[in-house]
Amino acid sequence: MRTLFMFLLLLCAIVPAHAANRAFVVGVDRYDSLGPEKQLTRAVNDARAVAAALKPLGFTVKSIENPTRRDLNTAWQDFLNGITAGDTIAVFFAGHGVQIGGLNYLIPRDVPNLTGNDETLLRDEAISLQKLMDDAKARAPRISLMIIDACRNNPFTLPGGRSLGGVQRGLARIEPPRGSFVILSAGAGETALDRLPGSDPETTSVFTRSLVPLLARRDLTLQQLAVEVRQSVSVLAAKANHPQTPAYWDELSGPAVCLTGTCAQGNGKLPPDRPPPPAPVDPDASLLAVIATLSDRAALEQLTRHQSQIVRGAARTRLAALPNNPPPSPPPPPAEPKYWRTGGGSVLELRTNGDTVAMTFAEPNTRARQDGVAVGQMYFTGRRSGIKAEGRLRFTTNNCSFEPSAALTFAAKSITVDIAAHGAACGQPSWYAGTFLLEPVANFTPSATGSPANSSGSSMVPPSQQPSRQPSCNDPDYNVFLDPLGCNKPHAFDERWKKR
Questions:
Q1: Could you report how far apart the first and last alpha carbons of the chain are, in Å?
Q2: Who's near 469: CB < 8 A, 6+ residues apart?
Q3: SS3 content of the chain, % helix, strand, coil (to 5)
Q4: pLDDT value at position 83?
């Protein structure tokens, strides 16, 4: 019995306690020494979304937002101290990252704004991704998952288009230690989209919004999760004409591994009560389907530089199949007539500028000239909305002018003019309201003198105005439109004034 007790005691000493799931999540939006254009807006949201997705999977999550270098190193050491052999660990970082000398560095909040040849200082002030991976490996976890959404543009751009690290775009390829699985939000030399163009309603980056729903998928191995993230991000980024294909490195060994642990048993098969995982999906399949119908030359030119040779070839083929000349634009709608004739025979010129409408006298009739109207004098001015224009009409009689309110209604072959009643003006106590039509004039050429088309009178008449030359109903110059003597003679355009 004593021997059995000692054996059990020794067995407990060499077998680790129940393995735990532990996660370290970092998001950095604010950078104290960088300009406003280098600040980020979604990295902290990315970190919060990933943390919220990992907790239901049994992970104990240590989160830190906008840390300084010292804060980040302290929190990382605390996290390492809690890891025991056999644990599953997940590390997520969202923020700025750069490559220097082929190695990748994550940027904490208090990094200085470096210029010139300060790469050595930047390397000392940043956090080495390789060191994080080596630190994790030293704790002998069962799985070490690293997810890095830091492939944005290098924030340390120098004059002349250079940047610290020698390149401006993305992170470099990595060499993770055995037992690690690493996912970068974009391929080597690519940059990751923070958001889609226009009004993007999502609060997380293009990569993170694709990643989070897949973390809880119990039917996906880590390899399948990485492939599905690549596929989803590539399709979303292609809609923005941006090449972005997440990259991953698999240094795991043994059976297939699921983050939730449900498929990491025996030969990697799922328990009997769960359906088998889908077959591996070609990450470029959906992108190739998009290319087959894409007609945007700029987007296709971008895709000819894609890291996948298949995608590059498909983009070139599609470009070659596009017609050399774009289809002709539909003809513009017919322009409105420029010249219009009043019932009295005056010709008006219509001018528009945006929503502003103006009509001027191109050829006043005889009576209008006698009243003091000259070529070029304003007839109407206002603003147009649709078929309606509201403004003021300038009425001139006996060399006296006033401007009642008026409205124009545009139709295919006429303009209806509605003039509001007006109070005392030009020696009269009041003026009636009226409605009449304008007709389009074809092939009109203004003359230098503006010869009158016929002799008819002004467009408004006071209730008791008498003409100075005492016309009769049979006078050839009699104004049948105004009908001051009450002759009630028919009018060619039926444009009588109406008392309202």
A1: 120
A2: none
A3: 25, 20, 55
A4: 93
Report the DSSP pairing between strands 180-184 and 247-250: antiparallel
3-state secondary structure of 33: coil
Q: Which residue stretches of the chain have pLDDT < 70?
A: 1-18, 115-117, 151-154, 156-174, 254-255, 260-286, 325-335, 447-500
**Alpha-carbon gap, residue 228 to 231, rounded angstroms:** 5
Query: CA torsion angle for 170, 172, 177, 181 (degrees, to 10)?
Result: 40
Q: How far is CA 318 from CA 46, 65, 244, 282, 345, in A?
A: 36, 45, 20, 20, 62
Task: Tell me which residue of 244, 214, 266 sits closest to 54, measured CA to CA.
Answer: 214
**pLDDT digit string (tens) for 276-305?**
444 444 556 667 877 888 888 877 887 887
Helix (H) or strand (E) run with residue 389 in it: strand 388-393
Half-sphere exposure of 23 (CA within 13 A, CB side): 25
Q: Which of 406, 342, 404 is nearest to 368 (CA)?
A: 342
Q: Please give the pLDDT value at position 201.
A: 85
| Res 470: pLDDT | 53
